[in-house]
Write a structure and sequence with these properties.
By secondary structure, the protein is an alpha+beta fold. It has a single domain, classed as Translation Initiation Factor IF3 (2-Layer Sandwich), CATH 3.30.110.40. The chain has helices at residues 26-36, 52-63, and strands spanning 13-18, 43-49, 67-74, 77-83. The chain has a four-stranded mixed β-sheet with strand order 1-2-4-3, with helices on one face. Strand 3 and strand 4 form a beta hairpin.
Length: 85
């Protein structure tokens, strides 16, 4: 499940995970487990609540070497597009 990334709309999402209502550190643990299920180069989209989840998960994902392709606010939640390295 790969696409050449020319624009964010061209991204093929390998996995989608809604983590609204989850608390840290479970938001990152579940994100990490989902990343383990996809191939390098694939994209995981996660939905996070504001506050600690949106502050901590992107930082931890970047620390692991993955790339955040896009962050989008969706009401009180945030969608993150993560490309696995």
């Amino acid at each position: 499940m790969r696409a050449i990334e020319t624009d964010i709309e061209d991204i093929i999402v390998a996995r989608y995970l809604d983590l609204q209502g989850e608390v840290c550190p479970f938001t990152y643990v579940k994100t990490k487990l989902a990343l383990e299920l996809i191939e390098s180069g694939d994209v995981l989209v996660i939905v996070l609540d504001q506050g600690e989840p949106i502050e901590n998960v992107p930082r931890s994902v970047k620390d692991e070497g993955h790339h955040i392709s896009k962050v989008e606010r969706d009401g009180t939640a945030f969608k993150l597009w993560i490309r696995k390295v």
